[in-house]
């Protein structure tokens, strides 16, 4: 059975090692200690924790798309008809091509937050509604 160090679990979860330590300390996430005293998480426990967390995401109950990347818009290029929108979501860079009208209606601009929704080979961008500026 695979076991993960706190730092490895944090990377997989997309959070800081301190957050994982807090979850372990509060018994929200089970962990054992190895012979050196380092905390290790069982792969099956980590998988169950990750699955349970995603079930609580309200968007998962209203959309068939399961791959959602909330991030910061880092680039928007518009021409008369189309727009290219780039989002940095943690370590993931997501690029979507959409109509200029859609980008304008969503208020997408560099520095705003948005969620990239990926289903199959299509990327759909959803505005989080917070417009800055």
TrEMBL record:
UniProt xrefs under Gene3D superfamilies: 1.10.1660.10, 2.40.50.100
Which residue ranges does the record assign to the Mop domain?
A: 62-127
One Pfam short name: HTH_17
Q: Which UniProt keywords apply?
A: Molybdenum
Q: SUPFAM superfamilies from the entry?
A: MOP-like (SSF50331), Putative DNA-binding domain (SSF46955)
GO molecular function annotations of the record:
DNA binding
Q: Which CDD domains match?
A: HTH_MerR-trunc
Q: Which GO terms describe its biological process?
A: molybdate ion transport
Q: Which domain of life is it from?
A: Bacteria
Record bears the keyword rRNA-binding: no
Which InterPro entries does this entry report, sorted A to Z?
A: DNA-bd_dom_put_sf, HTH_17, Mo/tungstate-bd_C_term_dom, Mop_domain, SinI_DNA-bd, Transp-assoc_OB_typ1
Q: What is this protein called?
A: MerR family transcriptional regulator
Q: What is the lineage of its organism?
A: Bacteria, Bacillati, Actinomycetota, Actinomycetes, Streptosporangiales
């Amino acid at each position: 059975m695979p076991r993960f160090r706190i730092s490895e679990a944090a990377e997989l979860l997309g959070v800081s090692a301190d957050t994982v330590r807090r979850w372990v300390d509060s018994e929200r996430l089970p962990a054992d200690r190895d012979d050196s005293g380092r905390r290790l998480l069982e792969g099956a426990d980590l998988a169950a924790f990750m699955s349970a967390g995603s079930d609580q995401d309200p968007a998962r109950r209203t959309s068939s798309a399961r791959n959602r990347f909330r991030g910061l818009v880092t680039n928007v290029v518009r021409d008369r008809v189309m727009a290219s929108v780039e989002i940095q979501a943690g370590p993931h860079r997501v690029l979507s091509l959409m109509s200029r009208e859609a980008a304008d209606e969503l208020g997408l601009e560099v520095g705003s937050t948005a969620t990239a929704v990926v289903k199959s080979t299509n990327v759909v961008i959803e505005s989080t509604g917070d417009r800055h500026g």
